[in-house]
Amino acid sequence: MNEISQARIIQQATEFVRCELENESSGHDWYHIYRVTQSAKTIAIEEGADLFVCELAALLHDIADAKLNVSEEVGLTRVNAWLDQHEVPTEASHHIMQIISTMSYKGGGKPPMATLEGMVVQDADRLDAIGAMGIARVFAFSGSKGRKFHDPSVDPRMNMSEEEYRNGEDTAINHFYEKLLKLKDLMNTNYGRKLALGRHQFMLDYLDRFYAEWDGKK
Ligand code: ADP
Ligand code: NI
Prior knowledge:
Blueprint: H1 3-21, H2 30-47, H3 51-60, H4 72-85, H5 90-103, H6 116-127, H7 131-144, H8 162-167, H9 172-178, H10 190-214
Helix pairs in contact: 1-3, 2-3, 2-6, 3-5, 3-6, 4-5, 5-6, 6-10, 7-9
The structure holds adenosine-5'-diphosphate and nickel (II) ion.
Nickel (II) ion (NI) binds next to α2.
């Protein structure tokens, strides 16, 4: 496939996804897709991955989400139909379906990504959960659930028992410790890891400052 056909498909996918996710408020809005796609391109270039597959998989990666469809299977069928209708070559289409279905796999113990392109797109998705964007998203998500952003009686920095911790309220700050601070060790690619380290440090600095300001120390 030539570059012009590829560019046309990317353009059509962008319009399709923007339209589908415009009013989405679960943390997978169009701008999440935009950022993941930008990061996927950056990492793909550094890692020598197939740019077309990475970009198209990043654009479509949340379309099959169960929150937007009757079920995940129905969502995946829709993505497949879209790829067929837009005449994406079979090999690329299979590859993209394989990436999206592995990424959205919700069963216990997610299987690792099988290809470099899959690793790139998963890294890009994880990057959007950390750093400045991750911080914005965690507070937006917590607020949408009506949760507090911090409960000082459940301070995750203290040596609490698992039970004490679990009985505490689910807050935005807790989510840093439950998930966000663990993501840097789950990165697949070298360049993804490099970007994750910068974002991780930014979250650590943020948390230091958060606790200092909480106690009026800064
Ligand atoms: P993804 O599908 O990208 O893996 P999720 O749907 O789990 O992510 O979450 C979307 C966004 O909401 C992420 O940025 C995540 O950090 C945030 N989020 C998910 N669960 C919680 C929670 N319990 N508290 C605060 N933020 C959360
Ligand atoms: Ni995503």
